[in-house]
């Protein structure tokens, strides 16, 4: 029976039919019918080609039919990994959530199964984009239209953040919400932007960029969760990660200048303290020196006075024994010593008046009355007129 | 015979499948169905699964059951206080009365067009009744609810319920943004100047305090020094007074002798002496006639 062998050839059609089989688990509702009809037509056409006489035996038909039925039944096999959840729908109605491993659903069009990843944490960037491979920048690219927003005190802040989310209810996730462009990311992003702007709009600029970052994250998360729960989205927001929350690029230089000013202030303070720390110890040292010098003077004065007093008293003790003689002796000794090296001019009182103007001593001419007055005033020490010399 | 039977069975089987498929319809969880009898709405079926209908007499129209989305493009809105802001919002809605929706709105695309218009006008209306700062406050939530309620008044006739309205962006127009940037920059500049001025204030204060301390330290040291000098001089005066006080006359003489020795260095000094002076008492006559008593200095 040559056609038996040929029927083996019809198995080749199985290759073409594998598409829908393997597509079974993914549950494409629209994918089934055209493929199956197309497949039947192609099988018939192929059989007619193989049988030029156009005759098809019962056995052949039954065999082909059985194979097709078998493959159709097998199309219900699908796999669910540990990170996924399968949803089985019987004529559209959700009838089962399948666990991990190998699973079976009745073949299309009776049942379909959809597999959703449920444990993976997804992330969405808002306000910035990860640089693509083609761009040479390593830094995230800021998206000003998303990242610039008004704060409660009518300033503008630049906020970048990342939303992390997981599917917590696969069937709710699949069926409850229409997502723009069939992308749940877009829904979440819209909610995230709205929530962030609402929270930032209620906060003060300084607080957002400094101490309230954690609070903002928490409030945005809560608000997003509330909104998504209202939508019945089957999504849990696990966390919000606030990346950059700072002054916008346009005013950043001004903000940096404030930081610089703070540093300047610190520097000026340090310099001033350095100055103080230098001059005060120096002054203390100088003060100590002054006091010590004064102390030295005091002790010196006392010591010298004591010495002088002792000297005088010693002389005086001796003097008392013979006052007249001693006094004359001391006078003559002193005069000898004082007058010996001097230029001496001895004038009689009677001629003094006329001679003084001719003295070769210019200095004396300045004090002619002194020279003339001298002889009358015997009180002056031993009759000598002195031109120079300090007061004793 | 056998083949005829088989053929009949096959025909019957095909007929059953055809009739079954014509008299039944399935509903997915994402949709609901209106059963139309000769085109007129008869019933609404919302339960997902397999349902029965009468072939040819009845047809089924599917209506989305999910929470649907509508977005209003960014639009300039004038708040009550004449401030302008650019608002970009979206609404989430669902079809709650499928028959009314089918009759009035017909399909989703038409409905979304209408909703976009309604959303835009509701946003303008509600925000126009509030001052700009209300958007940047706790009131924002209430504003969004007001927009939603305003929309629902208009969407009720389409069998649509708006679940939620969110203001996505509410920004200022570009020129106002620039003004804010300018103001922020000025504020920062002021802040920076303040810090710098404070810095020099702190610096001057520290320096002045240090200078003061130096002055005080020096003055105190000088005071102590003067006291010590005074003490020294006083002690000196007392000691010498005690000593010289024993014989003031001899002291005057003795001290004068010392002073002459020190005060009159020899070389460049000229002295005019009278032969009548004390020193020359015996110079011309051995009798020692001198007019006056020995001249010892009274001074010093």
Query: Helix-strand pattern of chain A, N to C?
Result: HHHEEEEEEEEHEEHHHHEHHEHHHE
Low-confidence stretches of chain A: 1-33, 364-392
- The radius of gyration over CA of chain B amounts to 61 Å
- Count of discrete domains of chain A: 3
| CATH-defined architecture of one domain in chain B | 2-Layer Sandwich
* Percentage of residues in DSSP E strands of chain A: 15-25%
The 3D shape of chain A can be described as rod-shaped
Q: Give the largest interface pair and sizes.
A: A-B, 137 and 125 residues
CATH class of the largest domain in chain A: Alpha Beta
State the end-to-end CA separation of chain B. 176 Å
Share of helix of chain A, binned: 55-70%
Q: What is the tally of helical segments of chain A?
A: 13
CATH homologous superfamily placement of the largest domain in chain A:
Band 7 domain
Task: Please describe what this structure looks like.
The complex is a heterodimer of chains A (392) and B (300). Chain A has 392 residues and is an alpha+beta fold. Helices cover 56% and strands 18% of the residues of chain A. The radius of gyration of chain A is 60 Å and the shape is rod-shaped. The N terminus and C terminus of chain A are likely disordered. With 300 residues, chain B is an alpha+beta fold. Among the domains of chain B are: 46 residues, no CATH class; 105 residues, Tetrahydropterin Synthase, Chain A. In chain B, strands 3-2-5 form a three-stranded antiparallel sheet, covered by helices on one side. In chain B, strands 6-7-8 form a three-stranded antiparallel sheet, with helices on one face. Chain B has a two-stranded antiparallel sheet with strand order 1-4. In chain B, helix 3 packs across helix 5. Chain B is rod-shaped and about 200 Å long. The C terminus of chain B is likely disordered. At the A-B interface, strand 9, helix 5, helix 6, helix 8 and helix 9 of A face strand 6, strand 8, helix 6, helix 7 and strand 9 of B.
